[in-house]
Amino acid sequence: MIKKEQVVEKKVKFGIIGTGAIATMHAAALEAAGNAELVAVYDKATGRANDFAAKYNVRSVESFEDFLADPEVEAVTIATPTGIHGAVVLPAAKAGKHILCEKPLDVTLEKSDEIIDTCNANDVTLAAVFQSRFGTSVQFLKKAIDSGRFGKMILASTQIRWFRSQEYYDSAGWRGTWALDGGGALTNQSIHTIDLLVYLNGDPEQVFAFADTMTHTGIEVEDTAAAVVKFKNGSMGTIEASTSCEPGFPRRIEISGSKGSVILEDDRIVRWEFAEELPEDAEIREKGVAGEGLHGGSGDPMAIDYEGHRRQIEDLAGAILAKAEPQLPGNEGRRAVQLICGIYESVKTGEPVKF
Ligand SMILES: NC(=O)c1ccc[n+]([C@@H]2O[C@H](COP(=O)([O-])OP(=O)(O)OC[C@H]3O[C@@H](n4cnc5c(N)ncnc54)[C@H](O)[C@@H]3O)[C@@H](O)[C@H]2O)c1
Questions:
Q1: What is the greatest pairwise CA distance in the chain?
Q2: Looking at the domain 4-131+309-327, which fold is it?
Q3: pTM here?
Q4: CA angle 251, 326, 15 (to 5 degrees)
Q5: In the predicted model, is pLDDT for residue 1 greater than 50?
Q6: Beta bridge partner(s), residue 127
């Protein structure tokens, strides 16, 4: 019989597929995680994988087939361009590897569902990365909403007035393409905040939107969008999403109900006000105002901390060890994709889209 202490001490051995920008956060998070460790990496650009492996003192496996056949690798993080998530997740799941898939799951709902279904069919655990959900301020807000403190939900809105340079879009051929990025400011950058919106306030009933490419050249997708949303819980709100706004302000989430209003800026609570004050509110304000330094990368994609990924990796590894559901399984990961696909449909047709 396995003793409880042994379960706690075991570390799930991870590999990384795709050793580009975000993989450095995965490696740092795996190094810091108490129940997971990095053992091997694979990238189709072998030189890049070798350099990465040398930096983190792990193995670089040159063939994808050998990487998937490696019995030491129990789980993999997916850090390839978005449109290549499915292409690597499906064989990895079939090889029995548990999966942490970067956001968004893939570029369409159909491809996202194929990932979810394949992981289920092969009995591997799938977690979709949305590291912002693991922030303490977000959890304070989620608890307040779920416990009914807001009364009737009235308005739930987000502002993502971010900035990405032309050099950012030029830095890799897949950025700003429909096939591999799946969209622009909405799908790549604002998806974290849109995920928080549906996580906190629930799924949308209807959306109407505009989108345009305002400042960047050579990209197929929007760098700015504005949407009006009617939610299933009866509330309404707006989504402003851009990568054209110098210098890039912290993202805002503003939630108001008949009995209270809260504003988050990045991971900081800047307003926390309810008709009925509770004893814990003073502590929530104190912790929330300080924040945890979990910035969203408003002006620079790498100006994020690995702490959010560490928390999510520990959650997934814990779920794998306990054979339990992670906090962010695949069907949670598809919710923001669904809303964003509805926004694109509305932009295309000029009509509101019902879900
Ligand atoms: N959670 C976050 O905050 C966050 C931040 C940035 C990026 N991301 C996501 O991470 C993913 C990667 O983004 P990035 O900015 O690191 O991209 P990147 O271009 O810097 O790195 C992608 C890497 O994948 C490799 N690759 C491409 N095709 C491959 C294949 N078939 N097999 C193996 N490797 C392959 C490339 O060679 C490259 O090294 C995207 O889905 C993006 O949306 C998430």
A1: 62
A2: Rossmann fold (3.40.50)
A3: 0.95
A4: 90
A5: no
A6: 100, 329
Other CB atoms within 10 Å distance of the CB of residue 203: 15
CA 194 to chain centre: 10
What spacing in Å lies between the alpha carbon of 79 and ligand 1's midpoint? Answer: 4
pLDDT tens-digit readout, 31-63: 999 999 999 999 999 999 999 999 999 999 999
| Neighbour-count burial for 91-116, b at 16+ CB within 10 Å, e otherwise | ebbebebbbbbbbbbbbbbebbbbbb
User: Whole-number mean pLDDT of the chain?
Assistant: 95
In terms of phi and psi (left: phi > 0; alpha: psi -120 to 50; beta: otherwise), the region of 242 is: beta
Tell whether the model's pLDDT for residue 4 goes beyond 50.
no
- Ligand 1 is surrounded, with C-beta below 6 A, by 17-22, 42-45, 48, 79-82, 84, 87-88, 102-103, 129, 131, 172, 188, 301, 304
User: What DSSP character marks residue 162?
Assistant: -
CATH match of 133-300+336-354 with 3.10.450.40: no
Q: What is the mean pLDDT of residues 316-327?
A: 97
